[in-house]
Design brief:
Two copies of one chain form a homodimer. By secondary structure, chain A is α+β, with helices and mostly antiparallel strands. An eight-stranded mixed sheet of chain A has the order 7-6-5-8-3-2-9-10. In chain A, strands 11, 12, 13, 16, 17 and 18 form a six-stranded mixed sheet that branches. Chain A is globular, with a radius of gyration of 31 Å. Chain A starts with 37 loop residues before the first helix and ends with a helix. At the A-B interface, helix 1, strand 1, helix 2, helix 3 and helix 4 of A face helix 1, strand 1, helix 2, helix 3 and helix 4 of B. Strand 1 of chain A pairs antiparallel with strand 4 of chain B.
Amino acid sequence: MSTDTGQQNLFKTAEPKMVDAKEPKAVKEKPDRGGETAESMAKRQREISVSEFFTKNRHLLGFDSPRKALLTAVKEAVDNSLDACEEARILPDIVVTITRIGTSEKQFTMTVEDNGPGIVKAQVPNVFGRLLYGSKFHRLRQSRGQQGIGISAAGMYGQLTTGAPVRVRSKPGKKSVPLAFEIRIDTARNRPESTDKVIEWEKDHGTEVSIDMEGEYRRGQKSIEEFLKLMAVANPHVHLTFKDPDGNISEYHRATNELPKEVEEIKPHPHGVELGILLKMIQDSEHRTVSAFLQQDFSRVGPTVAKEICEKADVKPDSNPRRLETPAVQRLKTAIDATKIMAPPLSCIAPIGEDLIIAGLKKEVEADFYVATSRKPVVYRGHPFAIEVGIAYGKPGDTLVMTEAGKIVEVAAKKNENAEALMGAADEPVRLIRFANRVPLVFQQSACAITKAVIGTNWKNYGLQQPRGALPIGPMVVFVHIASVWVPFTSESKEAIASYDEILEELRLALMDCGRKLGSHVRKGKKLAGEFKKRNYIEIYIPHLIVALKDILKLDDKEAGKARDNLTIVLEKSRKL
Amino acid sequence: MSTDTGQQNLFKTAEPKMVDAKEPKAVKEKPDRGGETAESMAKRQREISVSEFFTKNRHLLGFDSPRKALLTAVKEAVDNSLDACEEARILPDIVVTITRIGTSEKQFTMTVEDNGPGIVKAQVPNVFGRLLYGSKFHRLRQSRGQQGIGISAAGMYGQLTTGAPVRVRSKPGKKSVPLAFEIRIDTARNRPESTDKVIEWEKDHGTEVSIDMEGEYRRGQKSIEEFLKLMAVANPHVHLTFKDPDGNISEYHRATNELPKEVEEIKPHPHGVELGILLKMIQDSEHRTVSAFLQQDFSRVGPTVAKEICEKADVKPDSNPRRLETPAVQRLKTAIDATKIMAPPLSCIAPIGEDLIIAGLKKEVEADFYVATSRKPVVYRGHPFAIEVGIAYGKPGDTLVMTEAGKIVEVAAKKNENAEALMGAADEPVRLIRFANRVPLVFQQSACAITKAVIGTNWKNYGLQQPRGALPIGPMVVFVHIASVWVPFTSESKEAIASYDEILEELRLALMDCGRKLGSHVRKGKKLAGEFKKRNYIEIYIPHLIVALKDILKLDDKEAGKARDNLTIVLEKSRKL
């Protein structure tokens, strides 16, 4: 192996030129085998724009079927609206509208309007007309978007299938002039082509995006409706209105008027940084000493820790970081890994919290038992993350409760359409609802680390049936949320979470914690049901017993009545509840 | 909906500027809510380089674990070598070497050397040090690589985990000067930084790439060894040598000296082109009339078809394509879809063929029955593809055959390690081996359209057991290959095939065809086994029968012997095999 110490600068040569006709060719051999030569092949080598790549591979972005395309577009637009509102500390008010284009059942316009901070004129074309462009990728803080792909990809799909541009309205503030944009994507260059004009817009501030696209509108499972319902569960501070193509309007009201905690951007944590990243950070650093570099470019490194790392690495703390050779950087990396450093600050993520998880579940799922666990944030590969689990168990219709007088009664089922939609039947697998940074994950359930963790939990311990290698059975909704500065998704369409060991372990612990609480409820329910059954028997047999007693002891009606009351009291007392 | 007819040029405005301090700001409102404003948010918007994106999301490229990383890197390098050799019509001779770096069990150097056409000096840095760069993305012809990501991603992963550059040696021809390169990737710009020098290299032509990387070397399932073995099955024209870190050398010899058929580049087929693509093709066309555009920029459009399309679309054949308004292009698209057009030329793909599939299987899997089906190519979304299926059934050790004399005998098991590795046990699920453009697909089996099709086939019809929703059970290897100008993978790591309906249907038909042939073999085998059992009974009982006959009819030993022979002959004759 050669690490070519001290020759870093050698690699800083100019960018290689493209082959062109004038380049002197050392070889002009025409091989007799007839095929291509290195030269003929070189002429076809060229750059592939990221838009071209994703146009051809649009299933990677969630645009593989007309039905999924419509939902994916709504999701990307709503994600952006919520991120912007929260960043600007505005309680979000979002309107999602799907309309048919003409009488078509195949073409739709999807529009998402928000009351967010708007977008400045110069940025609108880039945000909506350029892939891999945005503010969230390079920042270590929790947000729904993270790639700078989503909404531009939706626009690209619309343009591909209908030829129409993305239409945007934006007003950044009360005194700003509202503008309307039409944006096309030049896929060969991955750049927007945009026009704009001043409009009237009765709104203090906000953004609206409209995309015409091929699509398919359906209700039920994996529908836009369901997605928005789940969005409301995990975002109880959001007011959402949904207008479907048939003119039906659904509204999701706020369960709280408090915005999620404001998240702060953090610097990378030294643990989890890889050698290649460290080499790059050192080259890019503005600091003049290794000690300053360690303290300023990382989180949780103070003078003492910096000194300790430098000592272990045998690197002088006041040496110039950019002059370090690769072996010295390797020693630094080894020293960092061997040094105890405080966990990263957790202000960069905003979990939902146990109370709001339960409030969100209660709003959309009717059950007779709710429990939630919000785990303390931990770290994978230097990225803080937190796992939260909520459980809603039991249909109210199936429920026995003990009244204040100690009586066990059946509670009548309340009619609630939401509850029916989210809660499965008693003999079916539980309903698993997955969230990442407060966004519902609708597709690819079986490929997701969350599903693996739920299946891997032994639910028999908590009184539920569970077939081998499958979700447990029962009238139950399991809510699982991962909040992180960087969620590792299994594809660009952000539908499932990659199975990192640290994430699986936290999922396991959170599920077990909720499971234990559920277990004691389920056991209590079973005991109540048993008692209820027993009492029913007693209540059936007491009258017969009294008839017999009356006959044997020659009791009159009054005495018989007294005996019945006494027997009932004795039986009630003898039971322990 | 607004399609803004005739205003195409409006969108050709200059690229939007980045926000900078000098831009006059219409709004200077500081909202009292305290959060971010559109302006403060705009300052953080910026481009994300594709290298940065994939560094953070490297699991998308198959570099999510050290073990998988090493295999993925080998795969990408071997794919490139084979593509280059075949394009240059050279019988490939490839050497794969994995060595430990020092005594490390965590760091390895992987080297792949070929006898291909080499790469010209100016292209080497781009090919190995730049993501989304290559010659295969824009061409409609079958090749292993298609994205221009793979080998640069392997280099990026190596750089990230060891800090070392990619090392390349290249010699484009006998008279060329061999060069050695060291290449780093500037991830922030997605551009290579490269140095090179003249070297000695005893070779007529070829390329060698070496990457130092974090990895884990193991044998067995999903190992480099297994991958190369499968590669040899689907590429019987390749000579492969593998040197493992312990110094063991495996060799895979050619089963044929013929290269696969040379594939030709084709133009897009009109069916399958989407409106957005058609709009772009029309704008980019060099042709002056719509008729010429249709005939020259598409395959299978002659003067008659072009005329028919124009008539249906109510577009004049000699009008200037670049002056067409969007509604006219929409009419063209509708007319194209309504016109019968010959299927695309199939010279762009090179299936393996039934004989070579069986030869490849025989080379690496020992079985007693082989069958293969190579379906005629068809088209999905304008892309030609062909499905091929091969089956190897039955362990020789378990096998009954009828000898020439009509005797059924058990064939002794031959010892063959390869056979053991690929063939499963009789009571286990069949072994499914998947290939796309002759490359083995090792990971994500359950997410793959091929797996879905095999599970969806009713193997009970062909005499095999099959649990519900699972692979059939039996001593069998199922080989499935898709050859296409564009294989739709479910992720950039190219591990599984997306479930397009057209592909699933062709898979189904090919599997059924092989299944039927297998079925008659399995039934024949079962019949033979039944006969064998019967005959065993007969052979057991004949001596007893003879003893009884001898006793009853008072036969002497000679007569008894004759009776036994006659009985045996009668029994043999009475059986129909």
